[in-house]
Specification:
211 residues, Rossmann fold, seven-stranded mixed beta sheet, two-stranded antiparallel sheet
């Protein structure tokens, strides 16, 4: 664990010497840089893992941006925090000698939401993202072209936190930006189920061959 580059974070070098991919792992509310390491290694075997801890605290629980209430956010603050994470990614590319064209994100809940915002604001910074339980938290005034980028969204039909309409709006926004979107609905709530981790791994394996 290290505290420079603007975020407390954990970096795990690629376990496969032939792998040039990096998986940016982004935790949910109350998580930290260690939470999703195991899932990340399952989803992207052999890849390097870059896992920052959110800089915002909500009653002591780390997050990547504030919420004013459940499902209510300040667009300016969300954008500012997305810009902050984008700077961290660029700095990490230099620090750890990463291939900038082979960075994928894996985010859960709040982590998925910051990953989607970075993708929408910074075309090409992330090659693709696995978004687990995301919702639409920020809609850019400008419409960036995300052709060549890919998104895997796994949402829960019985999720008490994320409305179905919010997921659908996020999908529509990515599709309007010409990203390749795969949407999987789970018979689940906000918690993850083993099958979607397997589905995410299969999807990412396919994307990694296309880089």
């Amino acid at each position: 664990m290290t505290e420079d580059l603007g975020f407390i974070h954990r970096f795990e070098p690629a376990r496969d010497s032939a792998s040039e991919e990096t998986l940016l792992v982004l935790h949910g509310t109350g998580g930290d840089e260690n939470d999703l390491i195991g899932i990340g290694q399952t989803v992207a075997p052999g890849a390097a893992i870059l896992s920052p801890r959110g800089n915002v605290l909500e009653n002591g629980a780390p997050r990547f941006f504030r919420r004013l209430a459940e499902g209510v956010f300040d667009p300016k603050e969300v954008r500012s925090r997305a810009d902050e994470l984008a700077r961290f990614i660029r700095a990490a590319v230099l620090r750890y000698d990463l291939d900038p064209s082979r960075i994928f994100a894996l985010g859960y809940s709040n982590g998925a939401n910051i990953a989607s915002t970075v993708m929408l604001l910074e075309p090409g910074l992330l090659r693709g993202s696995v978004l687990l339980r995301p919702m639409l938290v920020y809609e850019p005034a400008e419409r960036n072209d995300l052709e060549g980028s890919a998104v895997f969204i796994s949402a829960g039909r019985m999720d008490p936190i994320v409305p179905v309409t919010s997921v659908e709006k996020l999908v529509a926004l990515f599709e309007a930006s010409r990203a390749n979107v795969t949407l999987k609905w789970q018979l689940a709530g906000h918690s993850l189920v083993p099958s979607e981790v397997r589905e995410a791994a299969e999807w990412l394996a396919l994307q990694r061959t296309r880089v």
